[in-house]
Design goal:
sigma factor, single chain, Four Helix Bundle (Hemerythrin (Met), subunit A), 3 domains, DNA-binding, 335 residues, 2 strands, two-stranded antiparallel ribbon
């Protein structure tokens, strides 16, 4: 019996499925394993892994019909004419990688889409039913192999559905791009929603997946933009707090240029109380002191951390600035 060992190398497993762009390389090693020499502990580990897997699925009326299984598991219906005519046109001004998504996987017809969604959910339904019959402590290798095959087949269909709709994310992100937004960041946020939408879509209701996904992606991008605006507003409010504390009502009229220099010095000294990375993130994100504004991705690449980690550092630094301002710690700094 042959076993597969997959080893991934790289920062992101998502991009690896597309075959292009940043992502891992995958090496495959085959090992001959006989039932006589099978390690019982290996089966126990496999069983625990499979029992921890998420097998949630969307129920379809045909799942309870024993005679429908062959039709459900059949190959996807094809149409050469439809396949050739359903390749979308890439928007202008996007990177070659994003443009390539419009050529890699043709759009699915409504019939193909419904077939794939039903098949994916049926495989998870069947795997869930089998798993319920398995005793984790006495799992048979044949049952674990069957369970793994169904899960791998369901995952392959999920990836196929995602790839066929990646261009939808690019299109929506391109149309909702702000002047200071990074297209790759917006696409990345939209891709997360797309993966989740594939899991939650109920094809039995007769709706098109693109309609459902477009609604979900637009809502997420709008929330992300609102959250970004809120963070920027909070930072600006924090600056106002700093400047308000820096103002001394006992002073007489001051030359505007001198006042501006004092304020800049006050903010600079307050920023000096932050850690190096916190200060670097705020300066880059908001262009403080004339610096160029940078996206989360750009700062992450510069600092060797993830976008999410940059976001966390930014939020923490803003909280520190407001705390320093409210505690009136600026006065001794200016002394």
């Amino acid at each position: 019996m042959s076993g597969l060992s997959l080893t991934t190398c790289g920062p992101s497993s998502f991009w690896g499925m597309s075959g292009r762009g940043p992502g891992p390389s995958i090496s495959i090693e085959t090992k001959e394993v006989t039932r006589a020499h099978r390690d019982p502990s290996a089966d126990a580990i496999r069983a625990r892994r499979l029992f921890d897997a998420d097998l949630s699925y969307i129920v379809h009326p045909s799942f309870d019909d024993p005679g429908a299984e062959d039709a459900i598991l059949a190959s996807m219906p094809t149409s050469a004419v439809a396949q050739a005519s359903r390749r979308g046109k890439a928007p202008t001004g996007i990177s070659p990688y994003l443009a390539s998504l419009y050529d890699e996987a043709p759009l699915l017809t409504r019939e193909q889409e419904a077939h794939l969604f039903r098949k994916m959910n049926y495989l998870k339904f069947r795997a869930s039913r089998l798993r319920a019959q398995i005793d984790p402590d006495r799992a048979r290798a044949v049952d674990l192999e069957t369970l793994e095959r169904d899960l791998e087949a369901a995952l392959a269909i999920r990836i196929q559905l995602v790839r066929a709709n990646l261009r939808l994310v690019v299109s929506i992100a391109s149309r909702n791009l702000g002047p200071h937004d990074d297209l790759f960041e917006r696409v990345s946020d939209g891709n997360v929603v797309l993966f989740r939408a594939v899991e939650l879509f109920d094809s039995s209701r007769g709706n098109k997946f693109s309609t459902y996904a477009t609604w979900a992606i637009r809502n997420q991008l709008a929330r992300a933009a609102q959250a970004k605006h809120h963070r920027q507003s909070r930072f600006l409010l924090g600056q106002e707090e700093v400047l308000a504390i820096a103002a001394d009502p006992r002073t007489e009229a001051v030359d505007p240029s001198d006042l501006q220099e004092q304020r800049q010095a006050a903010v600079a000294r307050l920023l000096a109380r932050l850690g190096d990375r916190e200060r670097r993130v705020l300066v880059g994100r908001y262009g403080i002191g004339g610096a160029c504004e940078q996206t989360l991705t750009q700062l992450g690449q510069e600092l060797g951390i993830t976008r999410e980690r940059v976001r966390q550092i930014e939020a923490r630094a803003q909280d520190k600035l407001r705390g320093l301002a409210r505690a009136h710690e600026l006065a001794p700094l200016l002394a």
